[in-house]
User: Fold this.
Amino acid sequence: MDIYTNPSKSTYVTGIAKLFMMPSDKGLIPAVVVSKRSANIIVSAYTILILLIFMVGWNLLMALILSFWPTRGSRNRQVALVALWNSGESVHAATMMLDYCLKMMFPNRKSNHNTSKSTSDPKKIEPAQNGAPTADGPDPIPTSHNVSDPEKGATTQTSQDPSQDAPSSRSNMWWGFLFFLLAAAMSLGTNAAGILVPSELLMGNVAPPQKDVIFYPDVPHYNVPDDNGAGRAKLTSLKAPAALRAIGAIESSDVTVRDRVFLERVVEPEGVDPTRFKTLKYSYNVTAVDMGLQTDPGLEFRVSGSCRTEYGWLVNHTDTEDIYKLWGEDSVTVHRRADLGIPPMVTFHIRQKDVDELKTNMSYAMMVNTAGRYSYTSGQDPWYATKKTDNGVQIAYTILGERPALSCWEASSWHLGGHVEESDISALPGLQLDKIWAKAVFPFEFWGPRVSSLGLAAGTSALKSASFAAAPAYVLDAGLSSIFDDLERLVLASWVSSRNVLIDTTTYKSAGLVNVAKGQKGSVEASTAKFVLQSGDVGTLSVRVLISIPAVLLFLLIVDWVFGCVIKRRDLTQSPIFEDMDEVDGVEGKHATNATALQATQIFRRWDQKQGSQFPWGHLTTAIPVQHIPTEKKTKKETKKETKAPGNPGTGA
Assistant:
C-alpha cells in the first residue's frame, strides 16, 4: 500500500480491545491495533517476558537435573552440579560444561593430590589412600566412615571400595556434553526468540476503518446520457485524486509494483520495421490481501490484455487533422496543432459492440494527440517520431502526423476456491464479501478495461511523456518518450488502482453526492468496514502472540511451583550430597535440599562453619543464609566486670 501521507486518525479504529482480522499471505490473523508509541512499549515488555520464560525454563531444567541426575557418589558429577546450579544463565553454563567435557575427555593424570606429610589428622590422608582416582578417571567420595553401635558403646570403622560403582570419565563426558547441548540450545533459543517473537508480535501498521468515513457514489444515478455529461464529470473529478495517487505510487515504487505485474514487450518478426510496430502484453492478479479485505482470503481478481500499434484504422488525413475508423465502425478525428496549451493526452475508446453484448473480454483503443507538437529532441517511436521543423520556429523538431492508434483488448475474471466468475462476483460460491461491495461497488469499479478507467480518471497525467513537457507550450522531449513507457505506466497504475479500490472509498469527498455505501438503512454497516487501511502512526499486534507469551510464562511458573511441591512432599530428590547435612546444618538442615546446599552462598556458609564460625548461622534452607550476630548493648558496669574477671584475656592473665 502506497499512501504518501498517513490518513487522519479519525478514519481508522484503534484500541487494545478492538479485535479485527488482519489479511496476510498466511491467512487472516486475529489482531488489534494501537498507536505506534504504545506498540513499541508493548513489544519491549514482551521481549522482557520472553527472557523470563527462558529464565524459568532454565531453572526448571536445573531442578530436574538436580533431582534426577544420578551422581552415584562421584565428586566429578557433583562439581558439575555445582557449576550448573551456580552458572546463573545458559551461556555461562554452556561454557562451563564445554570446559567440563574437555577435562573429562583429557583428564590430567599428573595432577598433585594433597598428601602433605605435615598433616597429622588421618582423616585428611584417608581420601588419598582409599579414595584415590581409579584408572578410568573418576574421583569418588571416600566411603570409609565411622559407625556407632549404641548397644556396645563402641565405634567401628567400615570400609567399602568406591571404584566399583563410580561412573567413568567417558560417562561423565557424555553427560557433560548433553548438558552443554541443553545450555547452548537454551541460549540460542533465548536470542532467537528475542528476535523472532517481537517481529511476529508487531505484524505491520494497518487498522480497520471507521465505517462512517466510507463513501462511494451511486454510479447509475449520475451516469445518465441526458444531463450533458454533468454526472459523468462529477464521477471523474471524484476519482481523479485516487488515479493520481496510483500513478504517483508507481513512480516511487516502480520496482515493487513490477514484481506484481507481468509485462512483455513482444519482439516483431523479421521484415517488420521495429520503429513502426510495437506490441505489449500484460497480466496481473489482485488478491484479497492486496485489497486489505478481512474476508475471503482466497479471492483473486485476474487481468490479462495486450496492445499493438494499428495503422490500418487511418482512413484519411489532411494538413491539420487525421481521421481514423476504429474497428471499421467508429470515426475519430485527431487534430494537428503545435501549441495546444495543454499537455499531450491520450483518449480511450471502448468498442460499443462489446459493451452491448456485456463481454468480459473487451476491445478498446488509445488515440494520442502528439501529432504536430514541437520537440526539443528527435525521436523514432511510433507516437513520437519527428521531422525537422520547416517553418522557421526555433524548436528543431516536430512530431509527424498520421500517428498510429493502439488496438487493445483486456479480459478479467474473479476466482475463489476453484470457482471462476467473469463478471458477477456475487455469484461466487462461498463469497463472504459484504453485499455493498459485491453488488453496488465492484460491478461498476471493475467493469470494463482497468487501463481505460484509470487513464480516463488520470486525464492529462496519463502519459509518461507529459512529465517531460513543460507549460505553457508543453514542448515534448521525443527522444525520452516511448509508447512502451506510456503503456507500462498505465498498466502498472491500473494494478495499484485495482488494489486500492476499498482504501480509496475512505478518501472520497462526497460533495453532496449520494453515498451508496449507506445502503437501505441510511448508515454504513459494520460489515462494510471489513477491510484495513495503512498508517505509519499505528502498530498492528498479533492477538495470538499477545495471549500465548504470558500463557507460556504462567504455565512454566505453575509447573515450576508444582514440581517443587511434589519434590518436597514425595521426597523425590536425591540423597543429600553432603552426608553430614544434619550435623552441620542442624534442625533446619534436615529440610534442606541439594538445590539449596549447592548454592555458592550455602557452600560458603558450610565452609565457615567447618572453620569454627564465631556466630551461629540462620536461614539454612534459603538461598541467602544469614549469620546471627548479637546486637545487645552492655552497660559500662557490665563491661568493667567482664574485663576485671579472672582468666579474662583482656586482663592479661
Summary: The chain is about 40% helix and 20% strand. The first strand starts at residue 15 and ends at 24. Residues 633 and 639 are 10 Å apart (CA to CA).
